[in-house]
């Protein structure tokens, strides 16, 4: 604002005799008042009553800075808050001119509203439809990029067995770009948090996909991720037909290692080629192995081995009987065809002498008539 004042003063300085300076100070005061009007300190109870219906989808969302008062990282949150509060592009008169929303709220509370499973301090992005936490780095530029992605409607992809390969193109060269895949037991609140993480990752060119291994079992088996019952998600990075598996211990909603892995260090982890999609034969084989192991636990390995040998004997006997039947039927058809061909040839041979005898008889009769005459 001070730079704007100096610039306008230098432009209006040659104009003498006109009270431009007083008008200029009035204008600057008006702009400053409009800018500060968008920054609001409210209570937690009042925040819970707000529905943000005036914040249109596609416009700048409302920014909500929630801090518990004093903490080790509260100063960094306060610093980002003050930077946005003094930014005329995001607040104040510029919002009115550009038809943006984007009010900034500051709340002192240790509780996060709207059933978001995170702890204070936290930054929330809100409009008339969505309320998401910001899960990126505490920096003015990173938060600005996340706001842009939020306005574009970015969210985490809900990946299942049906759409995983179609959306990620994992085994066909990753034509849809890099993907960070998190296997976790999800619900509505968890997806709300992962949507907040997705806006930060998409600003860096990475798509986020969430897979529930308890429901999408085929995708879990494909990437060797079992059904999880603990609170430790698994994380993979799909990059240029390679899959990088996070080798550390990952806690739910601890996004510092997630950002570090996705944006910087995934090359340092174990990599291998993306496995092909599973087929029906894989499912049949898994079913056989699974039931074999269950029966082995119940009845012992000796009984299962004997039963397996008996089943193999029955299968081999059935296949052998089927082959013998097929060969016998093929031989019967061939014998019948040969007999039919032999009968036809004998009939033709019998017919030829008959014709010759008839011809000789006619010739004999004609000669006899000539003699009588």
TrEMBL record:
The keyword Transmembrane helix applies. The chain crosses the membrane at residues 302-328. Keywords: Membrane, Signal, Transmembrane, Transmembrane helix. Residues 338-373 are annotated as: Disordered. Residues 1-17 form the signal peptide. The keyword Hydrolase does not apply. Residues 352-373 have a biased composition (Basic and acidic residues). This is Thioredoxin domain-containing protein.
């Amino acid at each position: 604002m001070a730079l704007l004042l100096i610039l306008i003063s230098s432009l209006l300085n040659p104009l003498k005799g006109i009270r431009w300076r007083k008008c200029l100070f009035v204008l600057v005061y008006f702009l400053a008042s409009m800018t500060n009007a968008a920054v609001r300190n409210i209570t937690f109870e009042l925040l819970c009553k707000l529905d943000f219906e005036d914040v249109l989808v596609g416009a700048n969302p409302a920014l909500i800075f929630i801090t518990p008062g004093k903490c080790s990282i509260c100063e960094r949150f306060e610093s980002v808050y003050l930077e946005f509060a003094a930014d005329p592009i995001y607040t104040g008169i510029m919002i009115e001119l550009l038809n943006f929303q984007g009010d900034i709220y500051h709340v002192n509370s240790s509780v996060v509203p709207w059933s978001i499973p995170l702890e204070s301090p936290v930054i929330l992005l809100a409009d008339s439809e969505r309320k998401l936490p910001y899960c990126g780095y505490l920096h003015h530029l990173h938060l600005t990029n996340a706001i842009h992605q939020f306005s574009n409607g970015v969210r985490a992809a809900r990946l299942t067995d049906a759409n995983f390969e179609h959306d990620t193109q994992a085994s066909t060269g990753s034509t849809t770009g890099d993907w960070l895949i998190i296997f976790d037991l999800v619900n509505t609140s968890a997806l709300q948090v992962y949507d907040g993480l997705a806006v930060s990752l998409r600003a860096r060119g990475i798509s986020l996909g969430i897979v529930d291994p308890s429901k999408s079992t085929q995708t879990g088996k494909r990437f060797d991720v079992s059904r999880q019952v603990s609170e430790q998600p698994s994380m993979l990075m799909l990059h240029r037909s390679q899959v990088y598996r996070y080798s550390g211990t990952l806690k739910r909603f601890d996004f510092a290692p997630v950002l570090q892995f996705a944006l910087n260090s995934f090359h340092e982890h174990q990599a291998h080629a993306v496995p092909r999609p599973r087929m029906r034969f894989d499912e049949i084989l898994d079913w056989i192995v699974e039931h074999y192991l269950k029966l082995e636990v119940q009845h012992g390995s000796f009984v299962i081995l004997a039963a397996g040998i008996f089943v193999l004997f029955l299968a081999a006997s059935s296949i052998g009987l089927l082959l013998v039947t097929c060969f016998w039927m093929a031989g019967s058809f061939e014998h019948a065809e040969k007999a039919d061909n032999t009968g036809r040839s004998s009939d033709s041979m019998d017919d030829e002498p008959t014709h010759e005898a008839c011809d000789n008889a006619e010739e004999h009769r004609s000669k006899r008539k000539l003699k009588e005459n």
